[in-house]
Amino acid sequence: MKQTAGVIFRTIILLLIGVTIGIIITDNNFAGRHFGLSFSRSDDKISKVLALVNQNYVDSVDVDSIAGVTVNDMLQNLDPHSVYLPAQQAQTINERLQGGFNGIGLEYQILRDTLFVTQVYPGGPAAKAGLSTGDKVLLVDGAPFSGTKLTQPRISKTFRGEKDSQVTLTVEKNNGLKKNYLIKRGRVTLSSLDAYFISGTTGYIKISKFASTTDKDFREALTNLKLDGMQKLVLDLRGNGGGYLNTATAMADEFLPKDKLIVYTKGAHEPRTDYFATDSGSYEQGKLSILIDEYSASASEILAGALQDLDRATIVGRRSFGKGLVQQQFPFGDGTAVNLTVARYYTPSGRSIQKSYKNGIRSYHAELANRIRKGELLSAGNSLADSAFVGASTYHTSNGRKVFSSGGIMPDVFVPADTTRDTQLLSDLADKQLFTAYVIDKMQPTLKNFSTEKDFVKQFNITDTEFNAFIQYSAKSLEQVDPRELQLSANIIKTLLKANTARFKWGNNAYYRVLNEGDNTFKKAVEL
């Protein structure tokens, strides 16, 4: 079915995020104590076989790539989250979690072999130089750039570089004028959260990952929301695939009084380690709702599980992913690395929420799609009837409420999934970046009519005429447009088009403000 294809697309995205990021311990001493693998010992069979291939195989072979596959196969026989990381993947993950990189600080989309600027990071080198969304990059250091068969690796190599190194961009502005910008590369900060004031006394914070800067970013956002009069908080962890363990515990500490147990970890080579709250929490008293879904994993589940067990928050949404394993990253000298599972984590009540992987890696990765096909996302009863919960040990919160283990965090308030999102059409529109492409090509004149984000969100809506124009525009890039799917997903397509238009000018906060207007899980959390 076409709906299944859409489901699989989102499942793959989750697994790419969750498997490679997960929960990562950042204690270097831990790595020094426990890393005993060697790929150069004389008695190492893997090394011997690779040497034989390198010296004797009939065709030329990239031995490094074979080594990665071989090591990864071995690791995947242990558990689904122990993985080998090629150098580029390891670098990308670490940059995401460490909160930044050296470059010029912009996001882009390639249209007609031309790079269009779609976001300029506040405070970054590109922003300081004066670049803005909609700019077309024509030349780099005087040499042609547009129309030269652009690729993501080439663009990354062009824009990133050593701190204080320089690059000159020749761009065409929205008014058709061309301008040169001399940009000095520098530290680009990647924010891990977005926040805005909803209304009344309620604030909203979305955390996309648990990076090294997340707790600091949270405190700053919380301070600003309190200045606006916030007394209730909606914390959105949907789609958050994890991050650093110590960041998850630091975030839980923000909501809990001193000496409350947040989580504990233990493994065959590690004694039990307890993580307790301190007296430095910045939001220990206010009302709190936490949003989770089937893509909330790892560190997200540590935070949600702790606050559920201690009756500190109301958990709203759908059952989380179910990843209760902790990885330690062990780097090699060539930039590659291994994420090795070193412990399990347990919530304050003592439950492990790791779902079973006894049937192998394929079954494990198919589990989420199977949950969706069985209708679990549409009914709390279907969720509780899953084999992960049937016959599993039960646990209780501080106030005596029953909670579940072995299959993820089951929310206190279940909200079914919006089935209008589960179409192949919607997946194709997102996958081909057609929302942003349409904004670049068609919506910029409309944006000039609105001076503020609030005015745009309140006054602008996608008309049927604009919707039809977008579909006609997109049809040129799609293999087909199913009329039934088009009718089913029409409202969410309109919402996403408006949200992406808002993001183009005002950033992620505006995007989530628009997206949440029609989101049932968000609405339920605000009600609570």
TrEMBL record:
All residue ranges annotated as the PDZ domain in the record: 90-147
PROSITE patterns, per the entry: PDZ
Keyword Transcription regulation: no
Keywords: Hydrolase, Membrane, Protease, Serine protease, Transmembrane, Transmembrane helix
Signal peptide range: none
Domain of life: Bacteria
Keyword Isomerase assigned: no
TM regions (residue ranges): 7-25
Annotated family: Belongs to the peptidase S41A family.
PANTHER family (UniProt xref): CARBOXY-TERMINAL PROCESSING PROTEASE CTPA (PTHR32060:SF30), TAIL-SPECIFIC PROTEASE (PTHR32060)
Protein's recorded name: S41 family peptidase
Source organism (scientific name): Mucilaginibacter pankratovii
